[in-house]
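Section 4.2 – Deliverable D4.2 (structural model, holo form)

The reporting period included a commitment to supply a predicted holo structure for the target in complex with NAP. Inputs used:
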Amino acid sequence: MFYGRCHDGSRCGATGNAGRQVVNELLALGQRVRAVTRNAAESHLPAQVEVVEGDLTRPETIPFDGVTAVHMLTNAGADYAELLSGPDLVKQAEEAGVRRITVLWSGHRSAMEEAVTASSLEWTVLRPVDFMSNALVWAESVRVKGEVREPFAYARSALVHEGDIGAVAAAVLVRGGHGGRTYTLTGPESLSVPEQVAALSAAVGREIRYVEQSEAEARAEMLAAGRPAEVVDVLLGWKRDMPAEGYTVVSTVEDVLGRPARSFALWAREHAGRFISGAGTR
Ligand SMILES: NC(=O)c1ccc[n+]([C@@H]2O[C@H](COP(=O)([O-])OP(=O)(O)OC[C@H]3O[C@@H](n4cnc5c(N)ncnc54)[C@H](OP(=O)(O)O)[C@@H]3O)[C@@H](O)[C@H]2O)c1
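Output (structure tokens):
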């Protein structure tokens, strides 16, 4: 996905947990938005967004014409494979006259991040720790069984609200002044899974059980759900031996936006319907 201001003042955007928020925040800042998606019919983006079909793995399909600012992914596709087209996409962006770019970190130094930070663009790397929206993976289990099954009860994460990722990206792209910086993005507190489950229980108004899985059980479930083994290794390794960056709260969101980062309790209230039986899944 990517975003940018077109010759007539529009910006480009997309459909995911984070991307959708970037689009909304750019609109809120009065920008016009162009969104790139592989399936325009399923994009469900606001009517004022210019939705174009493109595939980041095929740079020739990405229209940078007239774009002045871009938000870029580092991983793409159903298996979150690393996007190897970074150098070509960045070159195209430079040639088209793009001035600013934010790039979403994905847990390691990627080819896309290398290309962006070596470019002539005014770049900013955004390093969100775990998204609060990762909790949506528990929605079905909560609706059906009233429980959350996860390993590593001890592990804490400084989860960030995806709306704050979008707001920071939009502020950086629109206002500038953040070139050459790498920003770790966290929420206002570090929470364990049992603490997140307690917040969800409060939001839905009934008790949700936390069941601690073994690592082997979690691995088997993720593989059975079709996740590639190397992705499972990375995800479980991150949770088991989380680096300090993953659980240390930083003030970047407030520094950039001038207001506090949003809490998981708020996220849980916003998404409570997804965890309530009979309330639907969207
Ligand atoms: N979840 C976390 O805790 C976390 C933490 C740090 C970083 N991240 C990174 O954040 C990124 C976004 O996460 P998310 O939760 O927002 O993802 P998501 O909801 O799964 O959305 C993925 C987005 O990528 C787009 N996309 C995928 N492949 C594409 C391609 N080949 N061409 C064009 N667009 C493509 C999808 O667009 P269409 O399907 O509409 O084409 C969709 O908008 C991930 O790649 C991840 O590496 C995540």
